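Quick one - first record:
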Amino acid sequence: MNGLLRWLKLVGRNKALLLMVLPGFVWFLLFCYLPMPGALIAFKDYQFSRDGFLASMIESKWVGFKNFEYLFKTEDAYLIVRNTLLYNAAFIILGTLFAVLVAIVISEIANKKLAKIYQTGMFLPHFLSWVIVSYFVFSFLSVDKGVLNQFLTWIGADPEFWYTETKFWPYILIIVNLWKGVGYGSVIYLAAIVGIDKSYFEAAMIDGASKWQQIRNITIPMITPIIVIMFILAVGGIFRADFGLFYQVPRDTGALYSVTNVIDTFVYRGLKVTGNIGMSTAAGLYQSVVGFILVLVTNFIVRKINKEQALF
């Protein structure tokens, strides 16, 4: 009884904060935790029933790990895993680097109105649909009307068939991903930089430290814990690929599959052909479990290096 009273008093004292957290809690409950029992479909031969989803899941036969075989026994298993890992590794490393760089540059702009304009301009691409982005890219890479081919023709070079040449697309996909995501990613680091006590910079200026020395010895060390936390969380999604980036931007061109096919696009195409929902659920479960394990491993390594910078 005393414990319940203490808990009620605690809730009363933090009522405003709990109300602020409530929408996020409800969202996670409805869209993250409530669907979790559906993961059982990964171990079943899912068949639709007229009685609804629950009846379909209960009546479907157990098949064990058979649905996972689609990912691991196919000829493209190595290719899609390799592409997914390498692209995400590049996105994490380069995305973090450029996001921190943009945040530092914006924080150093003396004219705050101009800084907000720059920040807004870099933030906007995040809200664009990948369908729209794919048309932007196509306007540059189109064989006959593309800006790049027109430029190549103007300087006397031969136009490129961008949508059939695989050698260009690893760079194109990385550039497009950075263009769309760096502005959004820099917001967190910019908030961390703004929160640094100004007295550190004032003391550094009194000691004659240059702007670069202030960044290297104050700004970067102070935001390192945030960088590490964001890195750990990003590693958790290293087996997940942005479907829009790898499907819409290359326009689902078959000639580019060797460099654009990742786990998500592979499963989507397989689902269109076979209609096997159990297989797609197995792929999602596999990505989630591996991501969770990677978060634990990465956090463990960080704790061994610096306990204060670990996520938990």
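second record:
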Amino acid sequence: MLIVGLAPGLRGANRTGRPFTGDFAGDLLYRTLLKFGLAEGLYGAHAADGLALRRARIANAVRCVPPQNKPETSELAACRRFLAAELAALPGLKAILALGALAHLQVLAVKGLRRALYPFAHGAMHELPDGIVLADSYHCSRLNTNTGRLTEAMFETVVAEIAQSVAG
């Protein structure tokens, strides 16, 4: 499974060197991945904590921290080649978990798919023409969880479903 986030976090990945490490989104993401067997070890919010992903990899829609965490169209376009390279490096990929609408749209753009055929919706599971499942979740950010847009249970439901699809 490939998990696609928005961008490196200023206080997370940019500081620690590991995606989602050291920020609130990582606390929820890694706790959930551990719960469903997609990671092992202990998450200590630093890159040397011993946590290891299993049957999962993390990438971002853009490679740099965008101003106000909102990448511009030009940044998304410039970074597509990096996400395309991630996808190409995973020939046995079964599923992609898009964390947020921008990550979802970036995956579709990289794959050359029409947005209208695969609308973003939390909990949606889209089977793509190549057989890969694109699962959608609201981003596991502090903003989304503090406002109730995303609850831990909502996030766990999506991860549980996609974990089942990549099991074995």
